[in-house]
Amino acid sequence: MLHHGDCFECLYPLPQGAIVITDPPYGIGYQSSRTRGKPMHWHSKAIASDGDLSARDRVLDGVEVFACFGSPKTSAPAGTVATLVWDKGPASGMGDLSFPWKPSFEFVWIGGKGWSGHRGEGVLRHQITSYASMGREHPNQKPVSLLEHIIAKAPAGVIVDPFMGVGTTGIACANIGREFIGAEIDRGYYDIACQRIGAAQSQGRLFA
């Protein structure tokens, strides 16, 4: 089920036992620094509620089980029991161009119990080799394989993404057969999410 609007108005209270897997505003006032190549439609867009961590903390308030993306520049949310590192690979990372290392990784904060599956490394190497080939529609878009990896280890329950962006979490749920509820406040991103998730669901039915 997909909702267009403020997640606090259309999703809450969450279903009992819901698992929140989300890429919320990082609280860093993100602005694209891309200056080369063909301009993307999202370059001039600001991320809503990205001035601080209040939106992130509000959606996770009272949620026991979650996986939440975030920046190393900010603190972990309350209830975090483990921190994973997403290695984005050599194609990503800008930051301060005068500094001899680029920020090519992000954190994934894990909360709650019931996570299971193969015991692998805490560094998730789902690399973005090319944003162009990835079909990037959002400044913070994640690879589908990364979300599939996380969701596959999540306990039973509906997966909820209050900041679904262009729907990557929903696509991963469709691919591995998990129930999904998402919300997105930006109409343009919401429309893209509907198209992408609908295509993933149709593909799943085709190969079922």
Q: How would you characterize this protein structure?
A:
This protein has 208 residues and is an alpha/beta fold. The chain has one domain (2-207): Vaccinia Virus protein VP39 (Rossmann fold, 3-Layer(aba) Sandwich), CATH 3.40.50. It contains 6 helices and 8 strands; from the N terminus they run E-H-E-H-E-E-E-E-H-H-E-H-E-H. Strands 1-8-7-2-3-5-4-6 form an 8-stranded mixed sheet, covered by helices on one side. Strand 2 (19-22), helix 2 and strand 3 form a beta-alpha-beta unit. The model is unreliable at 33-44 (pLDDT under 50).
Give the strand content.
15-25%
Task: Please tell me the CATH architecture by its name.
Answer: 3-Layer(aba) Sandwich
Strand order of the largest sheet: 1-8-7-2-3-5-4-6
Uncertain ranges: 33-44
Number of helices: 6
Could you name the CATH topology?
Answer: Rossmann fold
What is the molecular shape?
globular
> Main sheet?
8 strands, mixed
What gyration radius follows from the Cα positions, in whole Å? 16 Å
Q: Give a count of the beta strands, DSSP E runs of length 2 or more.
A: 8
**In angstroms, what separates the terminal alpha carbons?**
20 Å
Residue share in helix: 25-40%
Instruction: Tell me the name of the CATH homologous superfamily.
Output: Vaccinia Virus protein VP39
What is the CATH class? Alpha Beta
Quick take:
By secondary structure, the protein is an alpha/beta fold.
Features:
8 strands, 208 residues, Rossmann fold, 8-stranded mixed beta sheet, alpha/beta, 18% strand, 6 helices
Secondary-structure blueprint:
Elements: E1 2-4, H1 7-10, E2 19-22, H2 54-60, E3 66-70, E4 80-87, E5 105-111, E6 123-124, H3 131-134, H4 144-152, E7 159-161, H5 168-176, E8 180-184, H6 187-207
Parallel strand pairs: 1-8, 2-3, 2-7, 4-6, 7-8
Antiparallel strand pairs: 3-5, 4-5
